[in-house]
């Protein structure tokens, strides 16, 4: 198989799998979790910046929803596409630098 095609397929697959995992991981590290917003975390700072009242549909509310329940089907799809695009772009640049193409 052509190494460029193989690299592209591998990049798309890796990015599509890793994208949602990276998003949920970052949300968790920020302090948005299944038991609520962690005290002293970045999430707590975000919530405090709004005076403690979080509007429905706000970034804070969406992130807490992801932290509590995970990504929705649409969110998973978006994260997968973004991950695939990022890894494919990186693989393409690497192929050019290494001289495969």
TrEMBL record:
GO terms for cellular component: membrane. It is found in: Membrane. It is a multi-pass membrane protein. The chain crosses the membrane at residues 42-63, 75-100. Keywords: Membrane, Transmembrane, Transmembrane helix. The keyword Transferase does not apply. Pfam families: Ifi-6-16. It comes from the Eukaryota. This is Uncharacterized protein. It comes from Linnemannia exigua.
